UniProtKB/TrEMBL annotation:
Signal peptide range in chain numbering: 1-25
Catalytic activity, reaction form: alpha-D-xylose = alpha-D-xylulofuranose
Name listed for the protein in its UniProt record: Xylose isomerase
Molecular function terms, GO-annotated: metal ion binding; xylose isomerase activity
Family matches, as InterPro entries: Xyl_isomerase-like_sf, Xylose_isom_bac, Xylose_isomerase
PROSITE patterns reported in the protein's UniProt record: XYLOSE_ISOMERASE (PS51415)
EC number annotated for this UniProt entry: 5.3.1.5
Keyword annotations from UniProtKB, A to Z: Carbohydrate metabolism, Isomerase, Metal-binding, Signal, Xylose metabolism
Keyword Repeat part of the UniProt annotation: no
Organism this protein belongs to: Glycine soja (Wild soybean)
Length: 433
């Protein structure tokens, strides 16, 4: 009898323990006293980041991780304020849609405001979190893909309606917060319809759908006052040349760009069109391999003057170049328009999208930016994500602070370098606007 009672007691304790583990390990999906279903409203009581103050400059001696050590927005360097040299932007997709999932594991990040759905109300709640985040961080710009900010519908019309509803809220919030869109773009790589490409697809229906999606994304970017629009061809390439008509696909891509330019002019969008080079991933070989390849494409098809380049540092290293090399290639061809600020791991061969922490690399990057006279209307977009193991909301701020401080220190170093050696170099290399 005693043994039976002991066994029952142990089983009861085991069940209680398992229940506790389940509760502790469950995603944080609802505010504490919300009686309604989470996805029924886009409202949020209180702040999204209640324990985070507005980030301020405290100088190199500060031990406060939630402060800037090198980035002082209003400080002038070589005749420009730091904020005007750097023009920082937060990437909506990594910051608010990144889950920590990878090909080998499930998501690890469960932000308090998430409810586990991809509903329209959830999209609006994320947008509210976005503007609180960039306001506290002290950043003036943000970037987005269309399908990151609004859910994909069953039809193009439904997708557009969803996008319109979220964008209306974004316009309201950014006006109130006095923030701007650095660039927008269309996500033409995730949906199965784009498995063979979008602008290079051999399927007429897919090509037409992609054109309609880009048309809407340009309209939305224009409506939000976006200063640039990006084309990244993640699926514009091939897995094998044996079943690829490269010339035909490149011709289709050029016609696609020509149509975009014509529509841009038709609606009066004055933002800069940017092509973002990348050698591979997800395709084996992308057509915009690097800055030189992209420049040649623009020349061949008579598109020079209509486009500039958005150089991503991690993409540069994947193509076998340094970020500095890609920036200089773009600059000397008059094509340097924007920088996606991140870095990769030299020990791995894929796009890791890490925050830049290498001061030497940052110094060389800023040397190119200064030689270019700045990046406006482009800027530095943090196309970078937290590591899978980084799961605290505070980490979102710390990561961006480190990235901003690294580039700010690079700017200070580059300015000193120019002041010391300018007399040994041709004057035309350092014309500032």
């Amino acid at each position: 009898m005693m043994k039976m009672k002991l066994v029952k007691t142990l089983l009861l304790l085991l069940c209680v323990k398992l229940f506790c583990y389940a509760v502790i390990g469950a995603p944080q999906t609802c505010p504490a006293n919300n009686e309604d279903k989470c996805g029924d409203s886009d409202e949020w009581k209180g702040e999204f980041f209640p324990d985070i103050p507005k980030i301020k400059y405290e100088g190199p001696s500060s031990k406060n991780v939630l402060s800037f050590k090198w980035y002082n927005a209003e400080e002038e360097i070589l005749g420009k304020k730091m904020k005007d040299w750097l023009r920082f932007s937060v990437a909506f997709w990594h910051t608010f849609r990144g889950t920590g999932a990878d090909p080998f594991g499930a998501p690890t990040k469960y932000w308090p405001w998430e409810d586990g759905t991809n509903s329209l109300n959830m999209a609006k709640r994320r947008m509210r979190a976005n503007f609180e985040f960039i306001s506290k961080l002290g950043v003036d710009f943000w970037c987005f893909h269309d399908r990151d900010i609004a859910p994909d519908g069953k039809t193009l019309e439904e997708s557009n309606a969803n996008l319109d509803e979220v964008v209306a809220l974004a316009q309201e919030l950014q006006t109130k917060a006095k923030k701007r869109v650095l660039w927008g773009t269309a996500q033409l790589f995730m949906h199965p319809r784009y498995m063979h490409g979008a602008a290079t697809s051999s399927e007429l229906k897919v090509y037409a759908y992609a054109a309609a999606q880009v048309k809407k994304a340009i309209e939305v970017t224009h409506y939000l006052g976006g200063e640039n629009y990006v084309f990244w061809g993640g699926r514009e390439g091939y897995q094998s040349l044996l079943n690829t008509d490269m010339e035909r696909e490149l011709n289709h891509l050029a016609r696609f760009f020509e149509a975009a330019v014509a529509y841009k002019k038709k609606i009066g969008f004055n933002g800069t069109f940017l092509i973002e080079p990348k050698p591979q991933e997800p395709t084996k070989h992308q057509y915009d391999w690097d800055a030189a390849t992209s420049a040649n494409f623009l020349r061949k098809y008579g598109l020079t003057g209509e486009f500039k380049l958005n150089i991503e540092c991690n993409h540069a290293t994947l193509s076998g170049h340094s970020c500095h090399h890609e920036l200089e290639t773009a600059r000397i061809n008059g094509l340097l328009g924007n920088i996606d600020a991140n870095t990769g791991d030299p020990q791995v061969g894929w796009d890791t999208d890490q925050f830049l922490v290498d001061i030497q690399e940052a110094t060389l990057i800023m040397l190119s930016v200064i030689r270019n006279g700045g990046l406006a209307p482009g800027g530095f977009n943090f196309d970078a994500k937290l590591r899978r193991e980084s799961t605290d909301v505070e980490d979102l701020f710390i990561a961006h602070i480190v990235g901003m401080d690294t580039l700010a220190r690079g700017l200070r170093n580059a300015a000193k370098l120019i002041e010391v050696i300018h007399w040994t170099l041709p004057l035309h290399l350092f014309v500032f606007s």
